[in-house]
Automatic annotation (TrEMBL):
Protein's name according to its UniProt entry: TBC1 domain family member 13
UniProt keyword terms in alphabetical order: GTPase activation
Classification via Pfam families: RabGAP-TBC (PF00566)
One GO biological process term: intracellular protein transport
Superkingdom of source: Eukaryota
Claim: DNA damage is one of the keywords in the record: no
GO MF terms held by the record: GTPase activator activity
Organism encoding this protein: Cyprinodon variegatus (Sheepshead minnow)
Domain called Rab-GAP TBC: residue spans: 35-345
Transmembrane segments: none
């Protein structure tokens, strides 16, 4: 470690050693980038995303409570419905005249199950291709969720739900000549493009499976927004940062901590994913136009050139803003940009400035 980096790390350690953390000072320090060494970035992100309280004396009890809450989410939304579904082969108690697989009633448990499957398949397709240029998300996690993998729990896992849904159905394609093709949907959807994307054996799980679970729980708890394509690109860098923490004490609970930090970030960013709000003052259209308004102030010549060529902000800023630039740069650069983004009190105004700087 160079002397410059060492002094940088010491500054952060000093700021994080206070019983009550000075958030203003931590933000100023973090704006220029946060060192990954000794788990400093992981810890700072948890504070900057309003997950950890500023009073360090509360951390132990707070984290214990939050992780128990997340375990309860897993039991209620994955394990218990999975047990009920697994038992259907033994007992048909869940299939009644009032509630059965063909029941269109929105309150039907079967209807809910099938809708959840639609969301799960979309999440599954997206998380399998998360950062395909990196092997990390395909590798097994050191800390698989024991609650999920407990062999005493005979239930339908998310992994099994995806496999059954994709293997039982077949995709029928009719071309213009009237010729019909029947193919496996796994192949049609390119769900398993190569061996490296295949699931790991029982008893272990890949990092992408952890991300899938986080997004599924989020979708279940937020039915108004559920899951929208692109959320995987936001949760990915957060999970990667927490799951590569040098401290096993933090790394072991990366899943639960990622879920709550992602939820907090989405509470600020969720309007960008709600289509009905697109044209409102808080919607994505207004933010895209703000990039051009800012560009007009900073570089009038460039602004006029883009206007002259009819290049609208919607062509490129939609992805920049909704995904917080996570698809525009390599992961290490995304993480560095997010250090500054998370440390800025008015973080989404700062994002507009970055977009404007990219154009210039």
């Amino acid at each position: 470690m160079s002397s410059l980096l060492r002094s940088f790390v010491l500054e952060f350690k000093s700021a994080l050693a206070e019983d009550t953390i000075n958030l203003t000072a931590l933000r100023e320090l973090s704006f220029s980038g946060i060192p990954h060494e000794e788990g400093i970035r992981s810890l700072c992100w948890k504070i900057l995303l309003n997950y950890l309280p500023l009073d360090q004396t509360l951390w132990e009890s707070f984290l214990k409570k939050q992780r128990e809450v997340y375990s309860q989410f897993l039991r209620e939304m994955i394990i218990q419905p999975g047990i009920a579904k697994a038992n259907l082969g033994l007992s048909r108690a869940d299939v009644t005249l009032e509630d059965h697989p063909l029941n269109p009633n929105p309150d039907s448990r079967w209807n809910t199950y099938f809708k959840d499957n639609e969301i799960l398949l979309q999440i599954d397709k997206d998380v399998r291709r998360l950062y395909p240029d990196m092997a990390f998300f395909q590798r097994p996690t050191e800390y698989p969720c024991q609650l999920i993998l407990d062999p005493q729990n005979d239930y339908e896992t998310l992994r099994r739900r995806v496999e059954q849904t994709t293997l039982k159905a077949q995709t029928v394609n009719r071309n213009r000549s009237g010729v019909t093709n029947v193919s496996s949907p796994g192949k049609a959807l390119n769900l398993y493009p190569s061996n490296e994307y295949e699931v790991l054996p029982n008893g272990s799980e890949a990092h992408w499976e952890v991300v899938e679970r986080i997004l599924f729980i989020y979708a279940k708890l937020n039915p108004g927004i559920a899951y929208v394509q692109g959320m995987n690109e936001i949760v990915g860098p957060i999970y990667y940062t927490f799951a590569t923490d040098p401290s096993s004490q933090w790394k072991e609970h990366a899943e639960a901590d990622t879920f709550f930090c992602f939820t907090n970030l989405m509470s600020e960013n969720r309007d960008n994913f709600i289509k009905s709000l697109d044209d409102s003052q808080c919607g994505i259209t207004c933010k895209m136009e703000s990039v051009y308004s800012m560009l007009k102030e900073k570089d009038l010549e460039l602004f006029l050139k883009l206007e002259e060529q009819n290049i609208k902000p919607q062509y490129f800023t939609f992805r920049w803003l909704t995904l917080l630039l996570s698809q525009e740069f390599l992961l290490p650069d995304v993480i560095r940009i997010w250090d500054t983004l998370f440390s800025d009190k008015d973080r989404f105004h700062f994002l507009l400035l970055v977009c404007c700087a990219m154009l210039m």
